[in-house]
Design goal:
Structural class: alpha/beta
Distance between the termini: 49 Å
Oligomer: single chain
Organism: Athene cunicularia (Burrowing owl)
Strand order of the largest sheet: 4-3-6-5-7-8-9-11-17-16
GO molecular function, one term: lipoprotein lipase activity
EC number: 3.1.1.3
CATH superfamily of the largest domain: Alpha/Beta hydrolase fold, catalytic domain
CATH class of the largest domain: Alpha Beta
Signal peptide: 1-17
Active site: 171, 194, 289
Number of strands: 24
Strand content: 25-35%
Shape: elongated
Length: 462
C-alpha cells in the first residue's frame, strides 16, 4: 500500500470533463468545491460504479466466517439473505489500495459479531481504489452515493431506521462515509479512522467527513502531521469527538517498520502566474496510518483502556495539565465512544491519550507519587513493577539520578495493566556501581491517582 502511495504522489491527475451522470446515483461535477479550490486544484470526475465493481458482503452470526453478497440493485438478494431489520447495521469501508474482501475489514466484521448481534456489511471498491491516489479521491463520491443508495433501499424494503446505522471508514473510506451521510441525513453514527489528508485537509465540509454527516461523528487520528512532515491522515478536527492517540502523528511500535521517506509532495500552485512548482516533504505512512483501525479493533474488547483526555495540545496532555478526567468524565476512543454522555456537547472536541507499542495497545493513565526512605542521598534509579492477577508484569521507571530520602517523586504512567486487575505493585531500586554496599533505599509509600475518576489508592510496595 505504501508503494502505491509513493506512485500516487507523482501523478497529478487530469480533469476528465465538466460533468458525468450515472443511473440511480445522479450527476457529478468537477466544479468547486470538488476541484479548483486550495488543496484540490487538479482533481477530476469519478469512474462508473460498473468499472469499480462495487460489492456489499453481509456477515451475520448465521453466516459464520462466510458472507453473502447482497445488492441494492437486485434487492431480492437482501430479502433472501440473513439480513435482519431488527438488528443494527455496520458498514465497514476500506481506503486507497485496499480491499473489503479480506484483511482488516473482514476481521472487523467477525469481531463485531462476537460481541454484538448485528448485520455487518463489508463494502469492497478495490478496483476503484487501485489506480492513482487522485483517481481514488475522485471515485469515493460514487462509492458514497452507492452506500447512500443501499441505505435508501433498506428504508424502502424494511422501513429500516437510520438510527440503526453505523458507518466505519478508514482513510478515503472515512470521507466515503461522510459523502454517504451528506446524501442521506440522519445516520446514527460515522466513525472516521485516520481520514485521508491529501486533497481533504482544509477543504470545505461538503468535500470531506464533517460533523453534519451523521448524528454523531467520532474520529481517530493516527498519521496526521504538519508541513514539512506530511502524514497520510488529517490533522484538523473533523468530528464531534476527535482522538489523537500518541499525539496523532507517529505511533509507538511503528518507528522501525516504516522508515521516513523523502518524496515529491504533489505541487505548489501560484494563482498569479498559474504555475505549478514541485515541493519536497517528508512522508510518514503505512504502519502509522493503519494503527487507527487496529486501535478500533482492540477497543471493542478493551474499552476502558482507550480513555481520551480533553486537552488543547498533546504537549499539555503529556505534562499532566489535563489529568484527571473532568467532572463530565472522559470518552473512550474507538467502538465505545458513543457511550460518552457529553459527546454532542459541541463539535471539534479534542482528546489525547497514549497507547502501548503492541496489541492490544490499551493503557490506563495513572499519576504516581513515591516517597523514599533510607539513606539521605545516593545515585541510582527507582522503578515500579505492576503485577496482574494472571501473572503478567510491567515495569516502569519513576526516577533516576541522585535520589533523596523523604522526597516525593511524581510520574505520569500509561500502564498496560488494568487497575482492576492489579494484584500488587513491587518497588525496585537499582543503585550505581559506586554506591556503598550497605546503602539501602526503599519506598515509604506509593500513592496512585487513577485518571478515569481521580480515585486515590495507597500502596505499601513489596
Amino acid at each position: 500500500v505504501v508503494g502505491m502511495w509513493i506512485l500516487a504522489f507523482y501523478v497529478l491527475g487530469t480533469v476528465a470533463g465538466k460533468e458525468v451522470c450515472y443511473p440511480r446515483l445522479g450527476c457529478f461535477t468537477d466544479d468547486p468545491p470538488w476541484s479548483g479550490v486550495p488543496g484540490r486544484l487538479l482533481t477530476g470526475l469519478p469512474e462508473s460504479p460498473e468499472h469499480m465493481n462495487i460489492t456489499f458482503s453481509l456477515y451475520t452470526r448465521e453466516t459464520g466466517n462466510n458472507s453473502q453478497v447482497i445488492s441494492a440493485i437486485n434487492s431480492s438478494t437482501i430479502q433472501k439473505s440473513h439480513f435482519s431489520s431488527r438488528r443494527n447495521t455496520s458498514f465497514i469501508i476500506h481506503g486507497f489500495g485496499s480491499t473489503g474482501k479480506k484483511g482488516w475489514v473482514v476481521e472487523m466484521c467477525l469481531l463485531l459479531l462476537e460481541v454484538e448481534n448485528i448485520n455487518c456489511i463489508a463494502v469492497d471498491w478495490q478496483q476503484g481504489a487501485n489506480g492513482t491516489y487522485v483517481s481514488a479521491v475522485n471515485n469515493i463520491r460514487v462509492i458514497g452515493a452507492e452506500v447512500a443508495y443501499f441505505i435508501k433501499t433498506l428504508q424502502k424494503i424494511f422501513r429500516y431506521s437510520l438510527h440503526k446505522i453505523h458507518l466505519i471508514g478508514h482513510s478515503l473510506g472515512a470521507h466515503t462515509a461522510g459523502e454517504a451521510g451528506r446524501r442521506i441525513q440522519g445516520i446514527r453514527r460515522i466513525t472516521g479512522l485516520d481520514p485521508a489528508g491529501p486533497y481533504f485537509e482544509g477543504t470545505p465540509p461538503e468535500v470531506r467527513l464533517d460533523p453534519s454527516d451523521a448524528d454523531f461523528v467520532d474520529v481517530i487520528h493516527s498519521n496526521a502531521a504538519h508541513f514539512p512532515a506530511i502524514g497520510l491522515g488529517m490533522y484538523n478536527t473533523t468530528g464531534h469527538l476527535d482522538f489523537y492517540p500518541n499525539g496523532g502523528t507517529v505511533m509507538p511500535g511503528c518507528a522501525d517498520l516504516i522508515p521516513e521517506m523523502k518524496l515529491i509532495l504533489l505541487f505548489s500552485f501560484n494563482p498569479a502566474t498559474r504555475t505549478v512548482k514541485t515541493v519536497y516533504a517528508t512522508i510518514i505512512g503505512g504502519c502509522h496510518h493503519s494503527r487507527s483501525h487496529e486501535f478500533y479493533f482492540e477497543s471493542i474488547l478493551y474499552p476502558t483502556g482507550y480513555l481520551g483526555y480533553p486537552c488543547e495540545t498533546y504537549k499539555s496532555f503529556e505534562s499532566g495539565d489535563c489529568f484527571p478526567c473532568p467532572q463530565e468524565g472522559c470518552p473512550m476512543m474507538g467502538h465505545h465512544a458513543d457511550r460518552f454522555s457529553a459527546k454532542l456537547k459541541r463539535v471539534n472536541q479534542k482528546y489525547f491519550l497514549n497507547t502501548a507499542a503492541d496489541p492490544p495497545f490499551a493503557t490506563w493513565r495513572q499519576k504516581v507519587f513515591v516517597k523514599l526512605s533510607g539513606v539521605k542521598k545516593m545515585k541510582g534509579d527507582i522503578n515500579l513493577v505492576f503485577h496482574d492477577t494472571e501473572g503478567k508484569t510491567k515495569e516502569y521507571e519513576i526516577a533516576s539520578g541522585v535520589l533523596s530520602q523523604d522526597q516525593v517523586y511524581t510520574k505520569y504512567l500509561d500502564v498496560e495493566i488494568n487497575p482492576k486487575n492489579t494484584k500488587k505493585i513491587e518497588f525496585l531500586w537499582n543503585k550505581t556501581i559506586f554506591t556503598l554496599l550497605w546503602a539501602r533505599l526503599g519506598a515509604e509509600n506509593v500513592h496512585i491517582i487513577h485518571g478515569e475518576d481521580g480515585h486515590l489508592n495507597n500502596y505499601k510496595p513489596r
